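Quick one, T. Sequence first:
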Amino acid sequence: MTTMLHFIINPAAGNGKSLRVWRRIRPLLERSGVRHAVHLTALPGETAEICRQLAENSVAVRDDRPFRDIVVVVGGDGTLREASLGLLKACPDAEAARLPALSFIPAGSGNDFARGHGIPLNPMKALSNLLDALREGRSRRIDIIRSQGGGAALSSYGAGLDAAVAAAVNRSPLKRLLGRVRLGRLAYVLLLVRVLAAYRPVDVVLEVDGKRHPLTAVWLASVSNIPSYGGGMRINPDASPDDGLLDVCVVQGITRMKLITAFPRVYSGSHTSIAGVSFFRGRRIRLESSSPLSVHADGEEVGAAPFDIHAHRSAVEIIV
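Structure tokens:
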């Protein structure tokens, strides 16, 4: 069966970084001779709509389809999440195996999906890896995080301080300015310090597979199916994208100063031994809070607690 790669690029994203990356990788792609199409997006939601249409076509056409569609996002984790949401809207779970596969050329500031799945962060190497995977037939099915309200994330949900920082990053020009000099990840660190100065921990109830855990003075509760988020922070070092389980890191009952001094350890994953950091694992996670608590999905604001999420096993096929 012939492969058709659908490259999705938002020319305005990241100060034009996605478009610059696309111009770098395009000659190599054209030399490879692989069939491909290019979708330049301009409006919010356009990526999801393109992917929904591709998925509906794949589901509707049965075994006589002459080619296989693969969606390749050239961008950041937010665009990748939008693409996955579009694919998942197209069919019921029973038809998931018929959806187009998904791949990724990193062109964002965080690129945690690439880290979590062994995709090179260098765009040229990422494309070479994709072309090799196509020749060798390499792919895997991964879990995603589904919300009872219909939302989804490829890699992480979070409530509390991390969600507040993600919101500040998305609204601040700092990420864009630092991105121009390839320091986009530094925006997370700088804005963490700013948000932390005014942030107050809250009491929550974390429910894991039906077992309730009352927790006091919680700074954050991070749920993920890959180790890292926020540009390389290994918040759940043992998380796996294909075990049908979600890993949860909770930070509670520690002082602001201890949180600041311990923060660098999250990049190596050595924060696991710090008193006040605890871990949970389960298929379904629900969180309620005693006061308003921001929630993010793959670094994008999605409202406030409570949230009720679960691992949707083998929901998406990725080419790696």
